[in-house]
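Entry for zinc ion complex. Fields follow.
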Amino acid sequence: MKWAHVEDDNREGRDRIGLFLGALLTRLSLAVLVTAVCFAGSCSGDGRQNGRSGGEKDAASGSPGAFVRVLGTVQDGGLPHAACTCSHCEAARHDPARRRWVACLAVCFPSEGRALLIDATPDIRTQLDQVRDVGQHPNGRTDRHPVDGVLLTHAHIGHLIGLGFFGFEAVHTKDLPVFCTPRMAMFLRSNGPWDLLVQRREIVLREQQPGASFPVGPGVTATSLAVPHRDEHSDTVGYLLRGPRASLLYVPDTDSWRAWTRPLPQVLEGVDVAILDGTFYSANELPGRDISEVRHPLMTETMTLLGPLVRSGRTRVFFTHLNHSNPALDARGKEIRAMEGHGFHVLEEGQEFAL
Ligand SMILES: [Zn+2]
Ligand SMILES: [Zn+2]
Ligand SMILES: [Zn+2]
C-alpha cells in the first residue's frame, strides 16, 4: 500500500495504537514496540516504502538508531483552519481522522530515551503525547521534562506559540534547551510572554548563527540554514540533520526558491530526504491573487525544479506545511496522483525517517 493513499481512519488507528502502547512501555522495550506496531501495519509501515522505519536496528551498533518522526504537516492555522468553512476544513471538522496538526518534527534517540522537537506549534499538547513512547516519564503527575530540547525555525505563530506551554501555567520545564538564531533569541528575551520563560529558566536559549552545526544527540548534528521569509520578528532557518544512516533537510516555511542565494538542487546535493514547504499547490488555488505576491514556492514549481533530482533517485522529496486550501490534501484528488506519478509525496503524520 502506498502511504500517501493510506486511509485517514488507518492513520487515526495508528495514532491511537501508538499512544496507548507508548504509555505502557519503557524505552527498554522500544524495539519490541516498533516490531509489534510495524507488524500490525500501523506505524511507518507506509514508511517502509518511502520513509524507512526509524526504529529499525542500526546494523552497526545493534541498537535502534536515531530517527525523525513527523508530528504535524499543515500551515500555522491548522486543519481545520481557524474559523474556515471551506470543504477541506468542514470535512476535517466532521471527521476527526481528516484533521492534521501544524507542521512539526521530532528528532528521536530511542537508545537514550531522548526526543527534541523542531518547532513548537499550537498543537504541542498532542504532539508531546506523540513522542511519549521515546524515553521514560513519570506516572500520575506532570512530566517537567517531556522533551530534551526544541529547535525553532522562526517566530510565526505556527512555529513558536507552543513554546508557551513550557511555562509556569502548564508544564513548567527546567532549563529546557531551545536552539535558535541570535535574532530569535533577542526576540524571545525582549518580548512577553517568552521573556518570562527565559527569566524563570524554564527554557535556556542556545544561540546558533545561521550556518552553524551543533550536536543534537549521539551521532546526529543539526546545521541551521538561512531561509528567506517574512522576517518581521526574527530571521528564519531550516535544519539539515545528519546522522550515521542518512541526512534530512527540513524547510517548512520559505519564500520562493528564487529568493534563495543558491539554487535549490544545489542545496539538496548529498541530502537523502528533503521535507519542503508545500503551502500552496499551484496558482489555480488562489483565484484573484497576483501570483507574484505569493511568496511561498508553489508545489508545481518545486516539482519542476527538482524533477531531475527526484528522477535520479538521489533525494526523496516530501511536502509539508500545506495550507487548508491545498488540493493535495485530498488523498483521492488528481493533484496527489500527479505528484506521486512524478515521484513526489505529501508528508504523513506518524511517518518516520532513519537518521
Ligand atoms: Zn508557517
Ligand atoms: Zn479551510
Ligand atoms: Zn512563517
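NOTE: The chain is about 25% helix and 20% strand.
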